[in-house]
Design brief:
The protein folds into two domains: 1-56, Arc Repressor Mutant, subunit A; 60-213, Tetracycline Repressor, domain 2, CATH 1.10.357. With 214 residues, it is mostly helical. It has helices at 2-31, 38-45, 49-52, 59-84, 88-105, 107-118, 126-152, 161-181, 190-203, 208-213. The chain is built from ten helices and no strands.
Length: 214
């Protein structure tokens, strides 16, 4: 009976904690880290400010947990796909598909990343900045490793891997943002959007017969 009671309390605690995080990510996505206050998070989550301190010691800790959730989700997704595929094409295709689904189901988290990038708020604290950099490097190292393999196997042209990945990331990021802003993506359209993005990256927009003549 005691174990069940403790288990229920833990579940309730996790539920309340998630309620706070869900409220916080919406405000951070709208206003950014610096302009957001704990009072606003408390009001949005419908908890007293004192309740927030039962779960988090500061605004920075809330922000850190949100950022790490996003980073770890993306990193784990990349690792899972990396280990289950052989080609760069399959890696990009499956990763893009997972990213689109995550962004669709977690719009505020994605918009928070957009706000961070646009307003250069990456360095909210040195700890968060270092964690973001470490996560990004780990992800990039896997994709670059697969890109080098693709070049060696003549799957793609012999180009600088870092430049390829940077172009794909920046263009893909902007495209997903546009889809979400205009409401042009649904779960049913993710497969088609994934095929479109991957096809453009690997094949471009020029007709093949015309490309051969130039």
């Amino acid at each position: 009976m005691k174990e069940k009671l403790l288990s229920r309390k833990e579940r309730e605690r996790e539920f309340k904690k998630q309620e706070i995080l869900d409220a916080a990510v919406k405000i951070f996505a709208q206003k950014g880290f610096k302009a957001t206050t704990l009072d606003e998070i408390a009001e949005k989550s419908e908890f007293g400010k004192g309740t927030l301190y039962n779960y988090f010691s500061s605004k920075e800790e809330i922000y850190k947990e949100i950022i790490m959730m996003i980073i770890n989700n993306h990193k784990n997704s990349i690792i899972e796909v990396y280990n289950s595929t052989d080609t760069l094409y399959d890696l990009i295709f499956q990763t893009t598909k997972k990213d689109l689904l995550f962004c669709l189901k977690n719009k505020e988290a994605f918009f928070l990343l957009v706000f961070t990038k646009m307003h250069h708020e990456k360095s909210t604290t040195s700890e968060i900045s270092n964690l973001m950099d470490a996560g990004e490097k780990e992800i990039m190292s896997l994709i670059i490793k697969r890109t080098k393999k693709a070049i060696k196997n003549k799957e793609i042209k012999n180009l600088v891997p870092d430049r390829i990945i940077r172009l794909f990331k920046s263009s893909g990021f902007a495209y997903i943002y546009d889809l979400l802003i205009h409401g042009d993506i649904t779960e049913e359209s993710i497969e088609d959007e994934t095929k479109f993005i991957t096809d453009i990256l690997f094949n471009g927009i020029r007709e093949r017969n015309k490309r051969a003549k130039l």
